[in-house]
Structures are given as structure tokens and as C-alpha cells.
UniProtKB/TrEMBL annotation:
This is Nitrate reductase. It is a multi-pass membrane protein. InterPro entries: Pur-cyt_permease (IPR001248), Pur-cyt_permease_Fcy2/21/22 (IPR026030). Keywords: Membrane, Transmembrane, Transmembrane helix, Transport. One of its GO terms (molecular function) is transmembrane transporter activity. Coiled coil: none annotated. One of its GO terms (cellular component) is plasma membrane. It comes from Streptomyces cyaneogriseus subsp. noncyanogenus. It is found in: Membrane. It holds the Pfam family Transp_cyt_pur. Its main location: membrane. The lineage of its organism: Bacteria, Bacillati, Actinomycetota, Actinomycetes, Kitasatosporales. The chain crosses the membrane at residues 41-63, 69-90, 111-131, 151-172, 181-201, 221-243, 264-289, 309-332, 352-369, 375-398, 427-445, 465-485. Belongs to the purine-cytosine permease (2.A.39) family. The keyword tRNA-binding does not apply.
Length: 526
């Protein structure tokens, strides 16, 4: 896709000016973000207290510190590699990733991405609010004697959720401002935490898989190691549906390697909160093991129990900053996307609706359904379903040589019909089949001990192979379907397809509101 001629830059907008853009293509003059802005948003959204909670899972699974470090490195690096190519769709198409998926799933099939982003946002927004709210209440209890009853937790959750919703309503620029502050301040607080626990930290923490462990315990090492790595991996992969929400403000002429590199490095940088969670969890396991009981783990309570008194206030600040940062990155994109799924809703109204639904889930899950302990399973299953969607997107980008028709991508949002990505009545069954078959396979083989085991989850000796298997199935099946059932030649643009065959099929004209008159095709951008 050839870069667009440069346009005069639009005057900078006020931080408090509510963003009016939905998922329509961002005008060139307003695409003033940089890859470093993408880095700050993606890193800021994960440089939070909720990531520390995920970082504690290797210890909760019984691993030693060094085994947990290996699982964490594996999960972060693998997740970053899976995630980073998803950053290119925003600059190319000027819209979010769910809309870009129209090219591979069809203009109606793109609702799959919208649905997945909604579930992901609810899951990680909930993790953020629960973990940050618990830390804030616990810290305030230790500092000021605040009662730790349900009312205190309800007020803390409502405070976080309300602040997050307000930032999301204002939009991209205000969210970028919040994350600029969050990246620096949270990083400084994590480094301060390293000093707080330096005297208690012992890297020789052995875990349960020692030489003296019985045979049954030793047999659970690989299931525990892989399970911990997959939970860590779920954090970077969770950004796959959202990267386009932010990268769409980056000019199309920006080199792709810089955009991909920014997304990759943003996740490598999350080793800071992950290692904080891992290290402090090992301290908790040594000094207050009752808080890392797999049957009822309480990382936040354990952290406060072993923290020096002067670190309680920094814990509260980490909770507040982290709750804002993670929540905004999760909620903003989903509200943005649902404004196109439901045309009667503006971006602001859709954001408010999704936010209120998410807040209702948070309160019901915490006080009514007791879902807090099973949210890791919820996140694992969602990521298992989202990853094959990402594979279809990335392989589609490769086979198309990065060429797209941004006008045809907007057919669904404008309530039109036809265009390059109409396929079969708006559905591209090749991409959809590869996605659902891979997602179903992954769920069937998922194995989260004590919470969820798929019907085929025990076939690998207790090792959770659901996610890796879903990635392989999606890749193999999608490429096979592209070869056996060629797509229309028009979707590949001026160059030939890679790893796929094409068919000379007429493209139905775009009809409906705002369409060009019959016989006058809309000129593709780029």
C-alpha cells in the first residue's frame, strides 16, 4: 500500500475535548501519534498492579523463583512475538483491528472481533478493578484503620471504575496523557518496591518441586510450568484486539518495523511488574505462606502483610495509577468498536454502555457470584479464542502483502452492502471457519487445574496445550482453505497473492447510504 500524500497537520486538540471519531478512518491531518506513543499506551496499560497479580501465579503454582522466572520470560517473549504484528493494521487502515478484520472475515464477520474485544475488556477491566481496589482498601486499612467490609470495597471499585470511564469518554488524547504519567510514576514505584523487599527477597526459594518431593508432586511440574507461562502470555496477547485503537493515529507512512518494534518492546518492558509480582510472591510464600494457598490465594493481602510500613502508601498509589491505566486501555477500544456495531450509539454513548455493563459484572462477580478466583480461567479461555483470530489476521496481512481498501472496510459501519470484502453476503467463511475450528479445539484441550478442564484437557498428561494447539490449527486450516477455495483476485490489490490462489470473481458494487453512483467505483485509499 503506497503512503498517502502528507496533509497539513491539524491544530492540537485540548485534552478535555471529547473525541468525536468512531471507527471511521482517521484523517491524515489528525494522525500525529508516534510509535513511542504506542509504546507508552501498551506498556502503561500493563505496567500495573494487576500485572503483578498475574506475575505471582508461578509461585502460586508451586514453582521455585528460578523456575517461575523461566516461565515468566517464556510467557512474556512468546506473547510479545504473537502480539506485535497486530500493530500494523492501524497505520495501514486508519481504523481499529476489528474493522480491519473485515478484509479476512467479511464485513459482517468482523463482529467476531468486536465480541472478542468485549469479553477481553470485561475480563481484564475486572482484574484491574478487583486487584487495585483490594490493594487500596488493604493499604488504607493498614495506614488509617479503614474498615475492610464490603462497603469499603464497593466504594473503591466504584471509584476506579468511574475514573476509568471518565477517561475513556474523553478519548484517545486524554488517555495518552494519563498513560504518560502512569508509565513514569508506576515504574518509579516498582523500583521503590525493589528496595522495600530487598532485605527479605531470597532467589533460592525452592517451591514445591524439590528433590524430596513425592512422585505425584513431581509429575505436576510441567503442567504447572506451562500453565504459569500461559497465564503470563495471556497478558500481552490480550492487547491484540486493541492495538489498532491506538496505532490508527500513527501516519500510514511510518515504517512498519518501527510500529511492530514499539509493540514488541512495550511487552518486554512489562517484565518490570511481572518480576515485581514474582519476587514479592516468593517473599510472601516464605514469610506468610497462608496467603499463597492454591485453594484461596490472596496476593494483595500477602503483599501488605510482608510490606514495611513505609511502603503502604506507595502500594495505594500503585493501585490507583494501575487501575486507571489498565482499565482505560481495556475499555476504550471496546466502546469505540461497539459504536459501529450499534449505529444508534455514538462513541461516547457506546463507551458509557459498555462501561456500565462491565461495572455491573465487576460488582456481581465480587459480591454475588464469587468469580474473583476464577477470573484467571475466564481470561485463559478468552485468550484461547482470541489468538486464532489474530493468526487469521496476521496470515491474511501476509498473503495480501499488506494491501487493503480502507473504503471497503467501512461498508458495515456505514450500513452499506457490497465491495471487495463482501464475499458471501458479508461473510468470509474461510477465515471464520479457521477461527471457530481453532478456538473450539483450544477450549477442548484447555486444562486449568481446579477450575476448568476441557473434555480433551487430560490427553496431554495435565499440560494445557489448548492455546498452542489453537494457534497451529488456525494457521494450517486458514492457509489450506485459501489454497483450496481461492478468494476473489480483487481483495489482493495490485500484486499477486502469497501462499494463496485467487479467482477471477466480479466484485459487487458498494450500495447504500453515501455510496458512489452505480458504475463509478470508489477509489481505494492507497
Amino acid at each position: 500500500m503506497s503512503p498517502q500524500p502528507s496533509s497539513p497537520a491539524a491544530p492540537p486538540r485540548s485534552l478535555t475535548e471529547v473525541e468525536t471519531h468512531g471507527v471511521d478512518r482517521i484523517p491524515d491531518a489528525e494522525r500525529t501519534a508516534t510509535p513511542f506513543d504506542l509504546f507508552r499506551l501498551a506498556f502503561g496499560g500493563a505496567n500495573t498492579f494487576s500485572t503483578c497479580v498475574l506475575g505471582a501465579f508461578p509461585i502460586l503454582f508451586g514453582l521455585s523463583f528460578w523456575q517461575g522466572l523461566a516461565a515468566t520470560l517464556l510467557g512474556v517473549v512468546a506473547g510479545a512475538l504473537i502480539l506485535c504484528p497486530m500493530a500494523v493494521f492501524g497505520p495501514v487502515n486508519g481504523t481499529n483491528n476489528a474493522v480491519s478484520s473485515s478484509a479476512h472475515l467479511g464485513v459482517h464477520g468482523r463482529v467476531v472481533g468486536s465480541f472478542l474485544s468485549l469479553l477481553t475488556a470485561v475480563a481484564f477491566f475486572s482484574i484491574s478493578v478487583w486487584s487495585s481496589g483490594d490493594a487500596l482498601v488493604g493499604g488504607a486499612h493498614r495506614l488509617f484503620g479503614l474498615d475492610r467490609g464490603n462497603l469499603s470495597y464497593a466504594v473503591a471499585y466504584a471509584l476506579f471504575a468511574g475514573l476509568v470511564l471518565a477517561v475513556c469518554v474523553y478519548g484517545f488524547r486524554f488517555m495518552l496523557f494519563v498513560n504518560k504519567i502512569a508509565v513514569t510514576s508506576a515504574s518509579a514505584l516498582f523500583l521503590l518496591g525493589a528496595l522495600a523487599f530487598a532485605g527479605d527477597f531470597d532467589p533460592s526459594y525452592p517451591g514445591v518441586f524439590t528433590g524430596s518431593a513425592d512422585a505425584v508432586t513431581r509429575s505436576q511440574f510441567w503442567p504447572s510450568f506451562i500453565g504459569a507461562a500461559l497465564i503470563v502470555l495471556s497478558n500481552p496477547v490480550s492487547f491484540g484486539a486493541f492495538l489498532g485503537d491506538w496505532s490508527r493515529y500513527i501516519p500510514a507512512s511510518t515504517p512498519r518495523r518501527r510500529v511492530v518494534g514499539a509493540a514488541f518492546l512495550s511487552q518486554i518492558a512489562t517484565l518490570l511488574p511481572f518480576l515485581f509480582g514474582l519476587s514479592t510472591a516468593s517473599v510472601i510464600a516464605a514469610k506468610a505462606p497462608e496467603y499463597v494457598d492454591p485453594a484461596a490465594p490472596d496476593f494483595v493481602g500477602g503483599l501488605l502483610a510482608v510490606s514495611p510500613g513505609w511502603f503502604f502508601l506507595p502500594v495505594c498509589l500503585l493501585a490507583l495509577i494501575g487501575g486507571l491505566s489498565t482499565g482505560t486501555t481495556a475499555l476504550y477500544g471496546t466502546g469505540l468498536d461497539f459504536s459501529s456495531v450499534f449505529p444508534r450509539l455514538s462513541r461516547v454513548r457506546a463507551t458509557l454502555l459498555v462501561g456500565l455493563v462491565s461495572i455491573a459484572f465487576i460488582f456481581a462477580g465480587r459480591f454475588g457470584l464469587n468469580l474473583v478466583q476464577s477470573i484467571s480461567t475466564f481470561a485463559t479461555v478468552i485468550i484461547t479464542c482470541t489468538s486464532p483470530w489474530m493468526v487469521v489476521m496476521m496470515l491474511g496481512y501476509y498473503t495480501r502483502r499488506g494491501w487493503y481498501d480502507p473504503e471497503a472496510l467501512q461498508v458495515f459501519n456505514r450500513r452499506q452492502r457490497g465491495g471487495r470484502y463482501w464475499f458471501a453476503h458479508g461473510w468470509n467463511w474461510r477465515g471464520l471457519t479457521a477461527w471457530w475450528a481453532a478456538a473450539l479445539t483450544g477450549v477442548l484441550f484447555t486444562h486449568v487445574p481446579g477450575q476448568f478442564v476441557g473434555p480433551l484437557g487430560g490427553l496431554a498428561g495435565g499440560v494445557d496445550i489448548g492455546l498452542p494447539l489453537s494457534l497451529v490449527v488456525a494457521a494450517v486450516l486458514f492457509l489450506a482453505l485459501l489454497w483450496l477455495f481461492p478468494e476473489p483476485r480483487a481483495v489482493y490489490g495490485p500484486e499477486d497473492a502469497r501462499l494463496a490462489r485467487t479467482a477471477q470473481v466480479p466484485v459487487p458494487p458498494i450500495t447504500g447510504p453515501g455510496a458512489e453512483p452505480a458504475g463509478v467505483p470508489a477509489a481505494p485509499v492507497g
